[in-house]
Amino acid sequence: MASYVKEIEVAIDYMEQHLDKPLQADEVARLVNFSYYHFHRIFYECTGETIGDYIRKRRLTEAAVCLLQTERSILEISLDYQFDSQASFSRSFKKQFGVSPYFFRKQRLQPISLQKMPLVDKRLEHRLQQISLQPSFERIKTERLVIGVKEINNLHENQFKQIWERYFQREREIANKQMICNPEVRYGICTAEVPLSLHHLTELTTFYGIAAIEVKEIVEVPEGMVAHTIQPGEYAVFRHQGPGSELRSTYDYIWGTWFPSVDFELDARDNFEVYGAEFTHIEDEDSIILLYIPVRNR
């Protein structure tokens, strides 16, 4: 599908210019000289979303920005972004962001799910090369016990690099006290004291980051480290290929594109990353990190 990059770029640029104008998916296909059916398939396979979904989500994102940055009425914003009525806009908005436009504006919410940014340049390159657009699903049947280093974190500051540095300085202490399950596999875990809703998770929301390794049983936890349990259940597993510095783009796709298009929602278990045999180095272009996202049916 890499041979269609130019056509996709042209189509996205055209859609971005027409978010506040009438626009149909077949019109976009004609622009790049494809039948609607053929370009629909190409666009979906390359980006993980349909042309219509891309237009709708980007319109909703821009409308959300207007709600926060202007005093224009909800009806006016609805019509500007090509919704038939305020009611249809409100339904779509709530499906995308989990709250009504009125509540969103009143509470001045800025959730990470708002970050449905234009799919251009590095974002498009990432979508084409560095992520499995459709996850596999894995049901973890039993608890996994891990021991590691735990620190307060948030998305804005992202202290995971420092957490991993502290962990590797002390990893040998864990192996000295209990049986390691697999010395080639390590876990990066995000956990919170109370369940976090995707629609209320922001750049400054506090959670805990844990860098850890799985053990067969908890015998003794070294001082200053923690034991933690990864809960069983259903997980969507995304495959990220490339440097760790690009992980945020993968999460942005999951939060802003994948979740709004499926009949799953984020479950109240921890999400975690697996650094296994295919992981070579945090900045290696060929390195593989598996992202486990806890899901449940809506």
Automatic annotation (TrEMBL):
**Alphabetical UniProt keywords:** DNA-binding, Transcription, Transcription regulation
Which interval of the chain is the signal sequence? none
Q: Which domain of life is it from?
A: Bacteria
Q: Pfam families per the record?
A: GyrI-like, HTH_18
Any GO MF annotation of the entry: DNA-binding transcription factor activity
Q: Which InterPro entries match?
A: AraC_E-bd, GyrI-like, Homeodomain-like_sf, HTH_AraC, HTH_AraC-typ_CS, MarA-like, Reg_factor_effector_dom_sf, Tscrpt_reg_AraC-type_HTH
Domain HTH araC/xylS-type as annotated: residue spans: 9-107
What is the recorded name of this protein?
A: AraC family transcriptional regulator
Q: Which organism is it from?
A: Brevibacillus laterosporus
